[in-house]
Amino acid sequence: MHLFDILAVLLSLAAVFSWINHRFIRLPTTIGLMLIALLLSLGLLIAPLDSEWHTLLKQLLEDVDFEDTVLHGMLGFLLFAGALHVNLHDLARHKWVIATLASASVVGATLLIALGGWLLFGLLGLDVPFIYCLLFGALISPTDPIAVLGILKKANAPESLNTKITGESLFNDGVAVVLFLTLLGIATGEHEASLFGALGMLGYEVIGGALLGILSGGLVLLMLSRVDDYQVEILLTLALATGGYALAEQLHLSAPIAIVVAGLMIGNHGRRCFMSDKTRRHLDDFWELVDEILNAVLFVLIGLEVLVLELSGGPLLAGALAIPLVLAARALSVGLPIRMMRRRSSDFAPGTVTLLTWAGLRGGISIALALSLPDGETRDILLSVTYVVVVFSILVQGLTLGPLVRIIGRRADRELAEVTADADSSALNHH
């Protein structure tokens, strides 16, 4: 299938599904699109006869390289669009929390999921070597910024919590991708199994990516300061998102980290210092549209991906049992650092760990990384397990995140009212 035909089918499906969701279902766009695509796929799989639609969509998915499309196509645009509207001052205020969640928590969750997964696969009679359990932990541990940012817009989470989750989701996938690729190199024999070597590579790619983001973002800021034409300025940001990502990959640096840093610079300094009101409006409209279109296409692809998966009873059961394992690992890897940081800071509202755990959505990045595993039975098992966890994450966690935010928010308000009442009562008694 030609590239134009692929784009035509995907954009048409995304447009029709968006209309159906907006007109009848009224779910958050990303969730609604994935649900409709998933129901269509399951309907085609259950249908007793092969239909033209089944054949067309299966051919489409075989021609679309999901891993390449997400990791080397969409991700740069979506991260840049997300970073543009993150307040750097708020991010700096929570820098230690975000840095911990985006690094230590990812590594901790990877190890916990690997150990739990190794036991789980063994109990179910699935032959998955421990190094592949580590790979599964690395690909499923990070929260997906694409899924998180889209759903957080609708959840009305407290600003402090919103900043922590957004900051974590923007940075932790860069760390996780580097960790995954390092482990993949060990699994395939490309790298030696050395802890210091792995840490060195992780540091080189993450720090190098951040420095490249600063340099490329700074260069574009300089160019923005010398021009006042919204079309040229938007084109410069588009070049930064694509060219910066491609250059980072060529230099073997973390492209996601580079683009997030560059996006933060343009969003906080470029928009405020070097753009007119007219340019800001056009820039925001342009990147919001890019974000919405790519999100729509991505979540349609996730829903359709079930058509080409080798699904069977064992891996599906493993996927269902992996859901509580992943949630427990997330709760521990987030809860322990926050408990330690609470001793020094009061910047943690009641229910923070619960919300951070439930808001840790997985999405297209996890599926893309699973698809990059070497062909074989182990890959098929891990891909099926990953898909089940991702679908649960987006549908169940995504749909219940808003209500959970409201419930915990009301509870926090009640606790605050009780504390205030006790304080007033004590003051009256003293008088």
Please bin the fraction of helical residues.
over 70%
The gross shape turns out to be: globular
Q: Using DSSP, what is the number of strands?
A: 0
Q: Determine Rg (CA atoms, Å).
A: 22 Å
N-to-C CA distance: 82 Å
State the CATH topology: Na+/H+ antiporter like fold
What value does the average pLDDT take? 89
Please provide the ordered H/E string of secondary-structure elements.
Answer: HHHHHHHHHHHHHHHHHH
The CATH first-level class comes to: Mainly Alpha
Unreliable residue runs: none
Please sum up the structure shown:
The chain is mainly α and 431 residues long.
Description:
The chain is 82% helix and 0% strand. It has 431 residues and is mostly helical. The chain has one domain (66-415): Na+/H+ antiporter like fold, CATH 1.20.1530.20. Helix 10 (159-188) crosses helix 11 (195-224) and helix 12 crosses helix 14 (277-304).
Question: Topology of this protein?
Answer:
Blueprint: H1 3-25, H2 29-46, H3 52-63, H4 66-84, H5 88-93, H6 95-102, H7 104-123, H8 130-140, H9 145-155, H10 159-188, H11 195-224, H12 230-250, H13 255-273, H14 277-304, H15 313-342, H16 352-358, H17 364-371, H18 377-430
